Amino acid sequence: MTGVRDLKFRQLAAELRRQLLQGVWPADSRLPTEKELAGSSGTSVSTVRRAVDELVAEGLVVRRQGSGTFVVPPSPPGPGRALIGVSVPDTAFYYPKVLQGIEETLSAAGARLLFACSGYDQEREAKDLRDMLDAGVDGLLVVPTLDGPEPARDYLARLAALPVPSVLVERRHASLGDTNEYVCTHHEAGAYDAVRHLAGLGHRTIGLVLRHPSPTSGPVAEGFHQAIDERGLLTVEFRAAREEWSPAAADRCLAVLREAGAKAAVCFGDRQAALLLGAARRAGLTVPGDLALVAYDDEIADVADVPLTAVAPPKRHLGKTAAETLLRRLDDPELPRSRVLLRPTIIVRQSCGAAQDTGSVIPEENTT
User: Fold this and answer.
1) Is 309 helix (H, G, I), strand (E, B) or coil?
2) Cα(52)–Cα(55) distance, rounded to whole angstroms?
3) Which of 93, 94, 103, 1 lies closest to 57, judged by CA?
4) Is the bond preceding 42 in cis, omega lying within 30 degrees of 0?
5) Which of 59, 80, 209, 364 has the CB geometry, 3.0–4.6 Å to 267, for a possible disulfide?
6) In the structure, how many helices (H) and strands (E) does the chain have?
């Protein structure tokens, strides 16, 4: 139940954050009371309080004793800083911390932010970008949807040809013909490090568990298999579509792992790892005693029944770096185009059997 409550407060925080960024409540205005927000959102007052706590920590709102919770006004735009358009596909999972890094950096630079959420809809996203250009944005930070009706290469070429500077976030294309600037997590390195971690614990057969389709599943698989090949390890792979993942799918996944003799697995993402944890328990197995798990994304890994060791993309730093890259481009249009890959860390918890399973962090080897 703890995980369900945690998801509710994060979903509510994401919805409130979206409304704040879209100007539903003007700067310096008072938010509805926690009781009013609970009634309108169908959640409890304690869930509302946790959601608002998160917005306070992000500097989006401030509590004033005896008066209520108020919207923090953005910093006034400084010289040369006008309006930055930001488009993300989701505001409930993964991207809130990315948005936090973007907002902090733009605010410190005196820039304003125009926000849109595409819902992983390429046509809606393209319209949002056109609307932002019509509104006079000076630059764009975009998490592009690459699995829509327009082929990824063609869509990226259109983004590269936009009349204002743009930086892609968490999306890149293998083609050297793609000239877009980007700042991305090095997902290949994250999966590589997950295998290295499990191999260091003595595992010789390691499973790869994937949800698809996803822009991240390909890089994760690539890094995973490179680490397997370099170490001469054995592996087995289980894939299922996002909508197919359920306890029944997790039971099938566990059967595949056991048949191959795999006592460890890297799971993309957290939900798949949590479902596999449940399957192991139904089969009378223990985690990590009979099955060691490393999740990928670290969104809800810490609230699983057995807190999950997880590859943690540097989400907030990703947003800050992307915003900084765009601001430098606006300052000097002649700068060489940047392509930045940030290596994730591994947060070690209780699901993989490491001696340091206490919530420690395995340091990055390097940042490219």
Assistant:
1) strand
2) 5
3) 103
4) no
5) 209
6) 11, 15
Nearest Cα residue to 311 out of 283, 262, 345: 345
DSSP structure class, residue 215 = T
142 CB burial (10 A radius; 0-12, 13-18, 19+): buried
Written as one letter, the residue type at 337 is R
Written as one letter, the residue type at 147 is D
Give how far Cα 258 sits from Cα of 32, 92, 95, 197, 227, Å. Answer: 52, 34, 35, 20, 21
Tokens 């197995």 identify what position?
285
Which element (helix H / strand E) includes 74?
Answer: none
pLDDT in tens, the chain (368 residues): 444 445 677 778 878 887 877 778 887 888 898 888 888 888 888 888 888 888 887 777 888 887 889 888 765 544 445 689 999 998 888 999 999 999 999 988 888 888 899 999 999 999 999 999 998 999 999 999 998 899 989 999 999 999 999 999 999 987 778 899 999 999 999 999 999 999 999 999 999 999 988 889 999 999 999 999 999 999 999 999 989 999 999 999 999 999 999 999 999 999 999 999 999 999 999 999 999 999 999 999 999 999 999 999 999 999 999 999 999 999 999 999 899 999 999 999 999 997 544 445 554 444 44
